[in-house]
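Posting for a labmate who doesn't have an account.
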Amino acid sequence: MKEQAYQAFMSAVNNENIRLLSQSKDGLSNIKLGLGITVSMRNELNHIWDYYANNK
């Protein structure tokens, strides 16, 4: 899990994602960044993020 989270973080700052963010006109909530991880791993990381965000 730690390696997958690191991979997602490092992939999030790649040039393609930076371009995607800079071209967004509708806000950030509808953007799905390329994270270099599987869909199931993305879902698991989102679940963990939501858990901690909701318990803050």
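Reply:
Got it, the structure tokens are right above this. Residues 21 and 29 are 11 Å apart (CA to CA).
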